[in-house]
């Protein structure tokens, strides 16, 4: 598969022009271009540059309402409900993350539950945003049913991504995980490069567990992370997102032709509410150092804390550019022409 080296500056410029063409304001287009570029810079191509054609398709179909924005519908102290009004999932998530941060700075803890929104692309975007403003974050979203509940055959649960961010002086901790063994975006990226999964990631059409991303995408049946444990966690996160936002469950989302009108939760905590911030950093460093000191199973390998490799990848991409799939890049230029 051919790749083209693209700088972050070029990608942002091209994407800003593309989003402007399809009706977003200059400010919105620049924000969307920055978020998609930052995800690609961090190595998350599946929810960065590779997702752009799908995003534009949703705009063209009217599934993403470019003239709408998220609005608050209820509040009680540090807890609020918002309606995404089917606007851009990225713009909605940024707005709700910032609101949860503001609530946390005021009350120590802030929670915003959002309904009727669209795909937020890389969930880690919002955890990085929170930690850079000094806040712990716990964020999650439901999805269309794309996994069988453990023991079942048909898809009944979503791979509902869970994101947790913890601010730290010597490198923020950010966990960003789908509840499928591999996200569908990751499998699509590997399929584009004719690569196999390192571990079994789902079932093929013959009900066999497979490492072939194309076979799993074709069947549409991903494997829950942790088997029955991931299945249970998916259901609980779906319940929480649905109840707190009074929005759609994965079941209701699955009744639509496309994945839209999702429910999400943005919970932020201001750790400076406590007066022991130096102790907090010391405790985090002890945990990380204990893990780093582990003897590797493979010579030359090592362990990492969540988000550690992202910082390394980010620095490399900003210096050397990003290896973008040529077909994807050409498709984006075709959409722009």
TrEMBL record:
Q: Name one GO molecular function term.
A: oxidoreductase activity
Pfam families on file: Ldh_2
**UniProt keyword annotations, A-Z:** Oxidoreductase
**Segments forming a coiled coil:** none
Known PANTHER family for this protein? Answer: 2,3-DIKETO-L-GULONATE REDUCTASE (PTHR11091:SF3), OXIDOREDUCTASE-RELATED (PTHR11091)
Q: What is this protein called?
A: 3-dehydro-L-gulonate 2-dehydrogenase
Organism listed in the record = Maribacter litoralis
Q: What is the lineage of its organism?
A: Bacteria, Pseudomonadati, Bacteroidota, Flavobacteriia, Flavobacteriales
């Amino acid at each position: 598969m051919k790749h083209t080296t693209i700088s972050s500056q070029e990608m942002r410029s091209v994407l800003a022009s593309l989003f402007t063409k399809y009706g977003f304001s200059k400010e919105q287009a620049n924000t969307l271009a920055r978020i998609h570029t930052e995800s690609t810079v961090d190595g998350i191509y599946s929810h960065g540059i590779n997702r752009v054609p799908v995003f534009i398709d949703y705009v063209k179909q009217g599934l993403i309402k470019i003239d709408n924005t998220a609005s608050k519908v209820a509040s009680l102290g540090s807890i609020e409900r918002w309606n995404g009004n089917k606007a851009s999932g990225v713009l909605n998530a940024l707005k709700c993350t910032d609101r949860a941060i503001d609530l946390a700075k005021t009350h120590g803890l802030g929670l915003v539950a959002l309904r009727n929104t669209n795909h937020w692309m890389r969930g880690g975007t919002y955890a990085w945003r929170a930690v850079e403003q000094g806040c712990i974050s716990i964020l999650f979203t439901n999805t269309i049913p794309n996994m069988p509940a453990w023991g079942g055959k048909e898809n009944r649960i979503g791979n509902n991504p869970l994101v947790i961010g913890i601010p730290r002086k010597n490198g923020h901790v950010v966990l960003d995980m789908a509840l499928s063994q591999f996200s569908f975006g990751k499998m699509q990226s590997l399929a584009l490069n004719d690569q196999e999964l390192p571990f079994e990631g789902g079932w093929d059409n013959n009900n066999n567990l497979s490492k072939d991303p194309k076979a799993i995408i074709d069947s549409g049946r991903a494997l829950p992370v942790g088997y029955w444990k991931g299945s249970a966690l998916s259901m609980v996160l779906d319940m929480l997102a649905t109840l707190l936002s009074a929005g759609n469950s994965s079941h209701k989302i699955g009744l639509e032709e496309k994945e839209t009108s999702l429910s999400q939760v943005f919970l932020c905590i201001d750790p400076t509410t406590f007066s022991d911030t130096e102790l907090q950093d010391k405790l985090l460093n002890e945990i990380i150092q204990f893990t780093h000191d582990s003897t590797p199973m493979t010579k030359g390998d090592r362990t990492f804390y969540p988000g550690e490799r992202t910082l390394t990848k980010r620095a490399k991409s900003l210096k050397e550019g990003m290896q973008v799939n040529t077909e994807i890049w050409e498709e984006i230029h075709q959409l722009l022409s």
